[in-house]
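FAQ: What does a multi-protein file look like?

Like this. Sequence, then tokens, then the next protein.
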Amino acid sequence: MGTVLEVRELTKKYVEGTAESKAVDHVSLDVEEGDFVIIMGASGSGKTSILHLLAGIDTCSEGSIKYTLPDEVRPFRSSRRYRQSGGNRPADLARMNEKEKTLFRRANIGLVFQQQCLIPDLTVYENIMLPLMLDRSRKENASREDKIMNLCGRFGLKEHVGKYPSQLSGGQQQRTAILRSVANHPPLLLCDEPTGSLNSAQTELVMDLLEELNKDGQTIILVTHDIRVAVRGKRVLYIEDGHVEGELDFTEHVPNGAGLHPDSCPDTAGTEAVCTIKEREEKLIHFLQERGW
């Protein structure tokens, strides 16, 4: 597994007259393939601002956002600056123009928001199909239907494929939005408070889905205030005043799964074990309290 995302000295400044403020203040981080990174922090700390910069929705003032993509992933076809050159290659989102960022994001980044942003006049099936229809470079027309039906069957939506968003519960809508975001297999999935408007039961189902996707190898970065959500990730970054103030890693190296706790969940490679949910909660609460949570 290699590094999917390398962020260095990422900064977002706002200037009003002679006053300058930093929503994001020299953030650096590495995200490995198959990682599940949780971003936490107080309201206004810069969590969502960081996510928007990583997605290319907003433009940074300083720093770099380098995605390392395999040869078979083509960021976009029209840009000479980022044309395929053989081998894994970095693509710096911070150096792209708006058109380039849009095309890159469409092919390589899945986005999930607190509000599901489904198209109300399209069915569940049609909403999930949408990114595949927009990607004209793909030649998988015959298998698209099977792919979507398999996803829906796996994650409890098969009976709802013909329904419209207004006919679904909040949890079903969010699961539809997540499946739409991963339908074209993006290297990175970015989630901004995906359970913020859901009850505890719906939150559990959505996190089960994200955890299963991660076990399949999907790399995820997720912003949340919810401790119950945060403990489902592999590591937690705490943001304060726009910078990374601390990190908590839930994983422990255990060769070949030796000595696993019966309630622990090995990762996809089977070479690491994570704490039980209760142990994670205790560690996370202590970690957050040390930072004035």
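And here is the next protein:
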Amino acid sequence: MQGGFAILGTYMSDSRAPEQQESQDNGGPGAQRGPASVTRKPEWLKIRLNTNSNFKYLKQLMRSEKLTTVCEEARCPNIHECWGEHRTATFMILGDTCTRRCRFCAVKTGLPKVLDRDEPRRVAESVGEMALRHVVITMVNRDELRDGGASIVAETVNQIREKSPGTTVEVLSSDLMGDRESIRIACESKPEIMSHNIETVRRITPQVRSRSTYERSLEFLRIAKELDPGSVTKSSIMLGLGETKDEVLEAMDDLLANGVSVMNIGQYLQPSRNHLPVQRYWLPEEFAELKEIALGKGFRHCESGALVRSSYHAGAQYEEYRRSVHPLYRDEATT
């Protein structure tokens, strides 16, 4: 699914000797490649729980409207910050069951339920009730559908436009199997941001993603920008699966070459022992360096940090992007 790498693992304490941890966690001679290679999270990945009234309100709203959020389904580590402090959520449409089984993702897989044609209305009404200035709509893969679910994506955006005309919309789409007509349907709804995640570097994509290819993801982003030149295209990548710094820099170049102007970079966290193990925890200073490199290469905006996810601070990110592109843009929130 897209919604990307927003996953929070259940970690077991690590009883290995320090020298074993260093060798195995960094892909050394003793590295364990199987599911048993679950390691203790470093201190900078610890999160603060927040189940205040905002958190409870959003949870009740999602249940009463029978809506799904990627925040819950993908076990996002930022759910307490986003729900409890910022009162924001990322809606996951087209059900809660994905037709693909990517080895990094916590969303359940299998045969999806019958398409819910009323879902766009309920999402739009919830967006209005929450009075959101910016909303992110993501989706599960629905490969059994002729258009991959693109028409439901477009209808959701259109319903939000009708009920909350002042809300900006970001769509985090699947690759829609690279079908240009399906991509056109999604893009015609003209979200301010059209996002699709490459997830990882070229070399290890076959081991990480299911029924997806690195080239098809780049093609999706290229077509989306071609169909709607005025939109912002965005992509995210997770680190910690065995990629090298040079490969990450290559991915940056590939994204730029295909019209992407916003990039997010975060740390992969293993959802369970049945998912791919973490090969390495990148350091905070490494994330900071990658952000500087990305901006130096030409990205208009880059969020880079261990807990950064696809929709992390998405509203603030979009406003900062607008200010960088349009110097005369005035933040309405301050007026």
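Q: Is there any per-entry metadata?
A: Some entries carry free-text notes. For the entry above: The chain has twelve helices and eight strands.
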